[in-house]
Amino acid sequence: MNGPAGTGPSGGVAVRFKDVFSIIGPPMIGPSSSHTAGAARIGRAARQLFGPLPKRADVIFYGSFAATYEGHGTYAAIVGGLLDMATDDVRLPDSLAIAEQSGMQADAITGKGLFPHPNTAELHLYADAGDEKPAFTLVGTSIGGGNIEIVDIDGFKVKMTGNYPTLVIQNADAPGMIAIVARLLQQHGINIGTMSVDRKSRSGEAMMVLETDEDFPPTLRGELAAYDEIHSVRFVHIT
Amino acid sequence: MHFRTLRQLAEQAEAAGLSIGRYMLQEQAGESGKTPAEEFQQMATYYGIMKDAVRRGLTEDTTSRSGLTGQDAKRILAYRGGAATPSVEVPPIAGAAPGADASPGAKATLGAGSPPHAEAPLGAEVPPGGHTLLGDEASLAMSYALAVSEVNASMGRIIATPTAGSCGIIPGVFVSCQERFGWSDEDMTHGLFAAGAIGYVIANNSFVSGAEGGCQAEVGSAIGMAAGALADMRGAKPTQAIHAVGLALKNSLGLVCDPVGGLVEVPCIVRNGFGAVTALAAADMALAGVRSVIPSDEVVQVMLEVGTAMPDTLRETARGGLAQTPTGQQIMKDLRKKK
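Structure tokens for the assembled complex are given below, as produced in the milestone run.
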């Protein structure tokens, strides 16, 4: 279980909550920070990673999410996030109707099996409503006070909080890929705060997720995409 | 941040000759790379949203989506004999008992020149004012805390402090104390940094979500944050203010998260009202020199231990506790039917 750090007062384990505004905040539409605001942020991260409005979304709930998603409005919040709404967007309570008008079909599903945290949601996004396989998948956990951890993107194990400008790159697993990305960021004066990497297999597809202290310049996407080994470049901004 | 424990926080603030709130503002700016002025402005905006939530909870319809809760803040205010405050102008409501402001307990709080006194908003039987057992100040804090939690339950805009389930406690005591002591918005914003510093330590050494650690992690943390911040704002030395945190947390250890129907309504809202009162009490204890014999950092560890030992049924799953009482089950059934 991806639970609390559990360190003693001397504490050597990484902090889960980075700053004062992860405690005081976010501004949000009620009723629950973990089941509404955090859920909206998980949905919004998925939307920004996927790009366009998906034609269909399966929202699969686990743990406490599965037990209480109706009462807390968790489902409406995730759908609102998929519509790219922020946590304090006054349209959040009406997101299901707005999704329907916008042409996104959504379903809430109770998940079975193991899950990484009591508040876990898995999203399957489809480019077309009739598609058999989702075009994008994501697993997110809501750890309290509107803070989230995205733990899986398209089957890659990652670590992403959404608290910083985030760069998600899918690339060939080859020597020097991290160096290429790091050098480009260095040239733009961008500091990397956290980074997680994973791959499907040796020399197969790989993903890196970088959380940075500075915003990305508009030219960065093209500079990265110029490398053949880099297959996709995505940005997430849900701070 | 340069601190991981409450003790480190207090000692570092004292060494810097700063209150906890002012020290945290510095630390926050160091962490984010933004200027202290920018960070301060963001927090000031949040305080504005809190005050607005108090006002809305006392003036607007706060019936929750389920219909289970709402208007309790107004009930407290009416029973109390009315509150007239600079930030909260409660409009007179038709059918209310006239002359409520003439009652002995209907004393205006600070800064009231010609305050529009609140009248019975629900047309309830209002006894002559001044009958609260708590007294004016604590009952006002309680009603403000309920107001914000009711706004949350009716899907209004709030600031999670540290969570939405516990969003009433800090605004409840902050807004009422601001009126009482004549504190400026700037003072209050520093106070929020103090509350945030305390919450930062609790969250990183324990938890702040009901699903992980029960209600003690949400309402309990908020009370500890509010108590420590109030003591800090009242001029306690940081090491003294930190005692308020441990004193408060000890009183909510073991509190389970058992929301009826899975809604942030019952018992969450009234727990925010109680929480505001407890925060005032814990701050007063610390200001009087009462110490938390078990140091506050060790109490935080106990919260972690107790929360980890809590069964799933009592951690925000609505599968135990109040949620599974005969009445709780009936409410859940009725809600399903209503859909």
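The CA atoms of residues 123 and 221 of chain A lie 25 Å apart. Helices of chain A lie at 33-50, 63-72, 74-82, 95-102, 177-187, 220-225. Further analysis is deferred to the final report.
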